[in-house]
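Hi team,

As requested, here is the filled-out complex form for the 3-methyl-2-oxobutanoic acid run. I kept the field names the same as last time so the parser does not choke. Let me know if anything looks off before we queue the next batch.

— J.
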Amino acid sequence: MTPNSRPPKFTVPMLAERHRNKIPMSMVTAYDATFASIVDEAGVDMILVGDSVGTVMQGNKTTLGVSLEHMEYHVQMVAAVKPRALIVGDLPFGSYQASTEDAVRSAIRLIKAGAEIVKLEGGVHVADRIAALAHADIPVMGHIGLTPQSYHRMGGNKIQGRSSGDSAGTKERLLEDAHAVDASGASALVIEGVPQTLAKEITEKVSCPTIGIGAGVHCSGQVLVMHDLLGLSARTFSFARAYAQMRTTAVDAVRQYVHEVNTGAWPDDEHSFD
Ligand code: KIV
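And here is what came back:
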């Protein structure tokens, strides 16, 4: 793509505009400059510097160990490529749960690192954090449903919203959560791991755009973790599609290199100096 044909920078007000015009939005995670430039060149609307960095990059079972310092570091790397896509910085576990003041201070650090909107998990219980951030002029993306930072409460990363009742994660509670996030001033809402009928109902009821993952086609946009989309992970998920098999390609390439080193075929004359 030539610089002249590059679409305009995707900004926070464009979330509402695209939603109004019913144009779907795409979001993909990236955690460093190389992959941020790849997904940006491919025309994604939003780059989520997600705390999924804890599982896909750091190799941990959950996202709970990710620190604010880790997130600042990864946001800085993504921001360095000055993407056309909107940079979404994920607030990690522990950076906003204790108080609204923590939420505002943590969000300011991600904005200073280069995030253009911050994301945080939860519904009714974080509504005051979202309002405080909006009051501080920091755009917010909510995240409800299967919220990986609630790993222990959920008993693992389990689909939410299938049952009814009063406890956390029921259909009724998720509708309340969605309403609370929307009413507190969030600019968008991620819905993860819920039945598509519920995601559709939430999307119809809230005023902000919804971004789904494992939530069906009726959301205003979709998000995937880059490693799943590119087939980089050894694991697969029923809600994610691998649009390429990059792990196989990478293993084959490195295997070929190892073979050529072992047989003396690398380096050849063309790649050697006289
Ligand atoms: O951290 C992340 O990648 C996320 C997405 C799964 C929405 O929160």
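Two things worth flagging: The beta strands are 25-29, 46-49, 86-90, 117-119, 140-145, 188-192, 210-213, 221-224. The pocket of 3-methyl-2-oxobutanoic acid is lined by residues 29, 48, 50-52, 90, 143, 190, 192, 213, 223, 225 (CB under 6 Å).

Thanks,
J.
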